[in-house]
Amino acid sequence: MRRVSSRRLFTAVLLVASVLAPTTTAMPAGAVDAARVGRTAAVDRYDKDDCPPDGLGPELTARLDEAIEDVRRQTGIPGLVVGLWMPGKGNYVRATGVADTATRRPMTSDQFIRIGSETKTFTVTALLELVDDRRIRLDDPISAYIQGVPNGDRITLRHLAEMRSGLFPYSADPDFVRDLLSDPSRSFTPQQLLAYGYKHPNTFEPGQEFQYSNSNLILLGLVIERVSGHRLADFIDERVLRPARLHHTLFPEGNEFPEPHPRGYTDQTLNGEVADSTDWNPSWAWAAGAMISDLHDLRRWARIVATGTLLRPETQAERLKTLPTGYPGTSYGLGIFESGGWIGHNGSIPGYESVTVYLPSQKATLVLMLNTDIMYEGLEPSSLVARAITEIVTPNNVYDRPVPPR
Fold first, then answer.
1. pTM of the predicted structure, to 2 decimals
2. Closest Cα to residue 126, out of 37, 32, 38, 191?
3. Is the dihedral of CA 366, 268, 276, 100 positive or negative?
4. Which domains does the chain have, with CATH numbers?
5. In terms of CB atoms within 10 Å, which of 12, 35, 59, 253 comes out highest?
6. DSSP assignment of 332-388, as one string?
7. Share of the chain above pLDDT 70, in %
């Protein structure tokens, strides 16, 4: 069997052997408090603060066109959407390549995309809203909510959101890789996912190191369900998506995928051959990477995440306390990273990659959507595109998120 790295199977999670299934119900319509309604009004102002309707000028536009197409062709990206908005300077929106390699249907900017690990920004925002509600505290141990977590009395919710828990990534477990790739249509529960990781000891003591492990996010999803009494998807819809006015973002229950969307292509297969992964079931990603969105919503979301519109200022300040990752140029906070001054997250799931980041110093937003996750010389194609763009438009703030070693 071809070895698939734990970075690529990105929702590394851990077993909670004795987790009690939370009782969940539909989210009531009146769950948003008055303070949050006020924050929703602040979100609405974003549509009134758009960039000029014109582009970035012929010279800069031509340089971007050439650089993006060079990277797309070099790395073999089938289709790519780029959105760049720079207040006071203009904007740049391009779709290039194909959405379907069989029919040669062109890529367009109005399509839905699986956003992979960008889901973390939604899950952690939901968690931080519970902090604002004073129903949880970031320094509470996970054992206060979920039983059976190794070292759970010392691992805090903060450690989980910061990727500093030391919990073993379940996606590094060979049985998980085999089970997922043998039947990509299979539906996993969070508890089933966690079971793969609990076969292994923790990798370090809480807080000592950074390790990108989506096991952390599965546990945070369970905490949200336990504390709120609602399904994670319902809570995120009511408390995050609706106040943020994200009408084209969703948390799927299975492999549903709204139209229009591009076909997705991956080499994360048992034999290493490229496969169409469009309809694979993302349940194995759950709170760490199952969500779907589009260019318009991701543009809005980039600024909301970076500026904390849905959160109390003191809670957003906690989120933005990024710590070193051990990889030059990149630090990680509570479900977000900072790279070259850009704040946000990227996403990778078999067949798709995305980047949604915001540069506070220029109030600039960059969104990328790709219909492949196939690496190029060990690097994510989305990172190569983002680097090429930012080298041109923000040379003092270059996005250069390195890939952890396999």
1. 0.89
2. 32
3. positive
4. 34-393 (3.40.710.10)
5. 12
6. E-SS-EEETTEEEEEEEETTEEEEEEEETTTTEEEEEEESB---BTTB-HHHHHHHH
7. 85
